[in-house]
Specification:
about 450 residues, alpha/beta, Rossmann fold, 2 domains, 7-stranded mixed sheet, about 45% helix, about 15% strand
Length: about 450
């Protein structure tokens, strides 16, 4: 099959590369000449493990190309995927569909034969019917169908998610479109991965409902973690005990500094807005948004307490700034709340992140970027573990504590323990949902 993918951002590029690895002929389209130039040179503009190698393999095989020419790309295509951004619209929290509708019109004007126009971008319920109207208005004589095919890719594990999905969701209005979408995903169907065929609205809703539910799980365990800190319970043990219940499961029950990234913040806000527009308030989702913001602010209070109620003049080493490991994505990361509070309070902040500098330099002014966590922690007053990169999971804590002015650690991902901190010689160690360790209190006991 021939497939065109419009947009070479995270979703578009991963999808295009993976489709080509299925054996389809894929053309990826973008209006940004610098992006296309990089891709044609074999450079991947985003960080995603394994993507560069998979892209090179399929380019070499002749199945994957890149262009700025949309008309050329969709000529002869069986399916055209729209994979452009749908950022949160300022003022009302709704998804901004400007790019989606603009691309839909371009496709309509350029298409010369039957094709399935597939929305891969995350869009509010009812959007695909709007896309159909836009296409019909721009080209009344065009023979086409519209389909919804939301993505469920985790950054840092996107290739595996695409190749071994929990499910593929496809919304269609005709058997003809359904047959083409089944052909697109035939390699997965043949390996017994479920392909769920629905109507357009159900496919759109599945995406929002799934992300809102996962965001709710994260926020729930973060609230329980706060309660654990007050009652003496251990959130790790609580999470394990909950997760062993098959009805709950252990995923997304890891307490931390709040969710971030490209999906959960945007999609929860959009779902809340959809509910308001249809007079069915999404009260749980609205509460999740509110509590998640409070969780991030509560992290600042933890750090402030460790710094004797003042950041002024303190040196703080922050390990990790991306919203999660194995990505360079900084969108809505907890670091964007926590680090500005440190800098604004007068702290000298040193930052270490394997991939965060590319975006972080512009988003986090006033910090010093370093490559070595040991050097960053030297003569520091506080070390903060903010993203659980593998590079930070096996640190020599004794070496870090030895060279700090005041050996104190805030482990906001719970990758260490009170026992680790005590053995390493830290004066204070705080984490999420667990009793803090203080050397003075320990000595008194």
């Amino acid at each position: 099959m021939k497939i065109a993918v419009i947009g070479t951002g995270y979703v578009g590029l991963v999808s295009g590369v993976c489709f080509s690895d299925f054996g389809h002929d894929v053309v990826c389209v973008d209006k940004d000449p610098s992006k296309i130039a990089k891709l044609e040179a074999g450079e991947v503009p985003i960080y995603e493990p394994g993507l560069e190698e998979l892209m090179a393999k399929n380019v070499e095989a002749g199945r994957l190309t890149f262009t700025m020419n949309l008309a050329e790309a969709i000529d002869g295509a069986d399916a055209v995927f729209i994979a452009v951004g749908t950022p949160t619209r300022r003022g009302d929290g709704h998804a901004d569909l400007t790019y989606v509708m603009a691309v839909a019109e371009e496709i309509a004007l350029a298409a010369k034969h039957y094709t399935v126009i597939v929305t891969k971008s995350t869009v509010p319920v009812g959007t695909n019917r709007q896309v159909k109207q836009v296409v019909r208005k721009a080209n009344p004589d065009l023979d086409f169908d519209v389909a919804s095919n939301p993505e469920f890719l985790r950054e840092g594990a996107a290739i595996d998610d695409f190749m071994r999905p929990d499910r593929v969701v496809v919304g269609v209005q005709s058997e003809r479109a359904g047959d083409i979408m089944n052909d697109v995903y035939r390699p997965l169907f043949l390996r017994d991965f479920p392909v769920v065929i629905t109507d357009l609205e159900s496919a759109e809703m599945i995406k929002y409902a799934a992300n809102a539910f996962l965001a709710t799980k994260i926020t729930f365990i973060n609230e329980i973690a706060a309660l654990c800190e007050r009652t003496g319970a251990d959130i790790k043990q609580v999470s394990k005990g909950m997760g062993l219940d098959g009805r709950i499961g252990n995923k997304f029950l890891h307490a931390g500094p709040g969710y971030g990234g490209s999906c959960f913040p945007k999609d929860t806000k959009a779902l809340a807005r959809i509910g308001q527009e249809h007079a069915v308030p999404m009260q749980i989702t609205e509460a999740v948004i509110k509590v998640n913001d409070e969780v991030k602010r509560r992290m600042v209070d933890k750090l402030l307490e460790l710094c004797d109620d003042s950041f002024n003049g303190k040196t703080v080493a922050v390990l990790g700034v991306t919203f999660k490991p194995n990505t360079d994505d900084m969108r809505d990361a907890p670091s964007l709340t926590i680090i500005p509070a440190l800098v604004g309070g007068g702290a000298k902040v040193r930052v270490v992140d394997p991939q965060g500098k590319h975006e972080g330099e512009a988003l986090l002014p006033g910090v010093k970027w370093m490559d070595d966590p040991y050097k960053a922690a030297r003569n520091a007053d506080l070390v903060v573990v903010l993203t659980e990169w593998n590079e930070f999971r096996g640190l020599d804590l004794s070496q870090i504590a030895e060279h700090m002015v005041t050996p104190r650690m805030a482990d906001l991902r719970n990758i260490y323990s009170n026992k680790d901190a005590k053995r390493a010689g830290f004066d204070s160690y705080v984490s999420i949902g667990r009793a803090p360790y203080e050397a003075s209190a320990d000595q008194e006991d």
